[in-house]
Amino acid sequence: MTKVRYQVFAMNFAACLINYGDRVALSVAAPFILAEFHFSPALWGVILSAFFWTYSPFALVGGFMVDRIGVRRAYTVCMLAWSLTIPLTACAWNAASLIAARLLFGAGEGPQAPISTKLTANWFPMRQTSSMLNLAQSGTTIGPIIAIPLVVWACTSIGWRPTFVILGVFGVVWCAVWWFVARDRPRDHPRADPAERAYITADHQTAPGETMAAPRFWALLRTPYVLALAVAFFAYSWVLFMFLTWYPTYLVSARGVNKADLGGIATLPWVAATAGLIAGGFVADRLVKRSGSFVKPRKWMIVGCLIVVALCFGPSPLVTSPTLALVLVCVAIFFLLASYQYQALVVALVPASHRGRLAGVIQMCSTVAGIVAPIVTGAVVESTGSYTPAFLVGGALAVVGALAVMVLVRDKRTVPSPSREAAALA
What we know:
Helices cover about 75% and strands about 0% of the residues. By secondary structure, it is mainly alpha-helical.
């Protein structure tokens, strides 16, 4: 059996790595940029938020785009768009120009998540959805692990402006390789043999909409599980984007971390995030096989993990020991990323013809948090002189997200017994 699916996966992983490496660059470069422009915390919060003003609606655009033109072309358009716009950050001369650059960059990155979800649904069995989505998504945590020290080094050595120009090169190179490697589906790929195609699609015929007429898109939007996933993903993203945009500045201003040491210390939670993503994906898929349900294990992983996030993230600034506070944040980020079952539940619950769109919907809802969280955090810090209320809000939202999933997501899917042929292939 050929292994073309893993080549396609590797490209998806690389795209996620580049995605977050580029995205985290502004918050890591923040101490250097602020030293030049002297923006107030509230204004800097608006600048950090600007990326998400366009990222959020373009996540929905990406969902419609991938359902319409396919994975291969959609990913190419998306990657080229953000790789050609991130260097514009280097041209900024004031707050307005920096906001404009971030708006264009956010529009380019917005479609990536629903495209990644559709790619995984097309190229892997449904019983492996969580592990393969989370492994690909681990590129978004490994990206910062690589990018944080490199961006700090580059900003220190050559300046923050050249750093953003260099970042754009990686995505352009990726596009050239991607177009050669990828196709929309296994049946379209000349190097995928019949055995690999059969292995991938063995449980696809049990997906909703594969054997019956799919509900209309607008009817799906009104289902309780879509509301629950949107609320929970919003809570997840509030914590994630608050951490992504403000944590390096918090370490420097509130915990007294030297800017030169920031690369090492700020990387540790991303290591925990990577471990959480990978562990969460494999645990979820193992539980799917044991429980006979595509939905129940992923639902309860979201609920349990978000509760742990609330207990660790919210109180972390109240701890006087910087080491213990960092440990609490690392634990919170581990479980936050382990809860990343939202798109896997979209694959399990949504007809194939609408997966990109519904993935885009909940991605758009989640990234509204990316718009609001940096602004609220900046305003809170400026008005109170403390980060504690902002951390507590993140913990409270995690509880709300857990409750929404617990109450509104219902298990109506079961894993079919594999045929002998599929079992042999597995």
